[in-house]
Amino acid sequence: MSHTVASNRWTGALNIFLLVLAGVVSLTPMAWMVLSSFKASFEVTAYPPTVIFSPTLENYATLWERTPFLHYAFNSMVVTVSSTALGIILGAPAAFVASWTRVTWPAVLTLAARMAPGTLFLLPWYIMFRQFDMIGSYWALILTHAVITMPIVIWVLLPFFDNIPRSIYEAAQVDGCSPLRIFFRIGLPLVAGGLAVSSILAFVFSWNFFLFALVLSNSDTKTLIAASFNFIGEGSTNWGALMAAATLIALPPLVLAIVVQRWLISGLTLGAVKG
Amino acid sequence: MSSQQSPKTQLAALSAPAVIFTVAMIAFPFCYSIWLSFQAFSSVGTTSFNGADNYVRMVSDGEFWNGLAVTFYLYILSLALQLFFGTILALVMFRSKKLPGIVRSLFISPFMMPPVVAGMMWLVILDPSLGAANYILTSFGLPPSEWLASPGFVVPTLAFIDTWQWSPYVALIVLGGLQALPPSVYEAAEIDGASPVKVLFRITLPLLLPTLVAAMILRSVDLLRFFDLIYITTQGGPANASNTLNIYGFRVGFEFFQLGYASALMVTLSVIVLGAVLVLNRLRDAVAW
Q: Which stretches are transmembrane (chain A) (predicted)?
């Protein structure tokens, strides 16, 4: 018996050690990014790197004064919020119908957007949007980002709708409720939590998305992520401002992800595994 | 009769916007891209059917074969690393029964930050002359590395960054699988006096295989289409050493504006991704219990 107690204590210590190690490895680079964003320009490229320094907001001021950071942030908000809303408007009724009828192939079809490389879609979109003179418009970005958000909404909401007992629908039908009424009056209110989770996840993924805005935006509609390139160009001389930009861009998705962490894995895996 | 027809019509109406959107923005462009891959573009923008010329060109294009090799090198290396570290982290998290919420938040942060931001962050840390990483290496007496600037080391560096970002994601998936395992199995093994190592390799890991394969499928789809991190850090360089098929196809399309050839490259990559998913799905069926 004493043998197992000793080995338990040993594996317990190993366990804590590995957990702390993993935490340190995960955290250190991000902490370094945030720390560097508060370093004065002479300190951020100091070699050997400094850990103790007097913090300054100089880099954040630089972003405000020398780059259209707020304008890019505004563009990101327009594209992200609109594409999330569009994803919900399209995806929520589709998830309800898929759950009701048990016909899921249209939902599966939307996964094509998750399997094929983005450029496969970007090439024809580019030609299509050029045809309608929409390159550089918010609409081009909102529509293409909805290709990211809609499947997330459908696949996150599907289990929420599946959890509603069918007897509720049947009782409502007996009372003469049409499916349209059932969706708006019964289904939607019952999946309010799912709507919150799916819109937050859709927001995060739309915010983080790089490729489409890289080609379909112009200097007026460029999102923060697509503008990262500009920051890197300037960052070759100014790491502090680059890390300040990185910190600010990462902040909204990180805060939101922590809010929905309980549902994160089932949302991210789009029905492939149960979280 | 009309009362029976009406619910169906209403259900169809509810799903119609999503179906129309999917056809217009996903299915049609998908087919359009396949059509494009059989077209030649003239300098004035008109297209003409050129048979399989784009595909013939692809087979004789050294950059295509380089891209294919880089794609698979990066894919296999990253997948192996993040499955290994992800599984270990999952086992560790599973054994620490009470995991504070803050620890979970800490582990989801790397993969919820934009990959582009991860790229900006690691560019600074891994800078060959002033980066913190080389300072740490040299202070331990190890030689400094060129990291992303070295043709020989750029793919392992990208695999390392992606592993840093996505191992916790694999861990959370595997953790879900561990929590779903029937506890009776462990109890029986404990009564039999099996050692922890034996339980791990004879019981836990075999039972986890379906979850591991599911994680492999999810990561394969992303890794074969690896884009953001590479484009923000190296754009395929140095000397095309990180020029994956996805990066190469993007550059052919939007730097050289050869839309037909780019489509052929992207159709080929799509077939590769689909093939990987089908093979892994087969594997998942084979290990199901």
A: 12-35, 72-98, 105-127, 139-161, 182-210, 239-260
Q: Which residues, 6 or more positions from B190, have their beta carbon under 8 angstroms from its beta carbon?
A: B199
DSSP string, B48-113: EE-TTHHHHHHHT-HHHHHHHHHHHHHHHHHHHHHHHHHHHHHHHHHHSSS--HHHHHHHHHHHHS
Among B174, B186, B152, B3, residue whose Cα is nearest residue B93:
B174
Q: In whole angstroms, give the CA distance from residue A161 to residue B14.
A: 14
pLDDT along chain B (289 residues), means of 10: 66 93 94 93 77 92 96 97 96 82 85 94 91 90 90 96 96 90 80 81 90 94 94 92 96 93 96 95 88
* Sequence letter at residue B130: L
pLDDT at A271 over 70: no
pLDDT tens, position by position, A92-130? 999 999 999 888 888 888 888 888 999 999 999 999 999
Instruction: Name all domains of chain B by residue range, CATH numbers in brackets.
Output: 62-287 (1.10.3720.10)
Nearest to A127 by CA among B263, B235, B251: B263
Alpha-carbon gap, residue A57 to A144, rounded angstroms: 36
Amino acid of residue B246: N
CATH of domain A66-268: 1.10.3720.10
For an interface test with B, the pick among A11, A21, A26 (most B C-beta atoms closer than 10 Å) comes out as A26
Chain B CB within 8 Å of residue A5 CB: no
Cβ <8 Å between B18 and A94: yes
ipTM of the complex: 0.90
Q: Where are the domains of chain A?
A: 2-37, 66-268
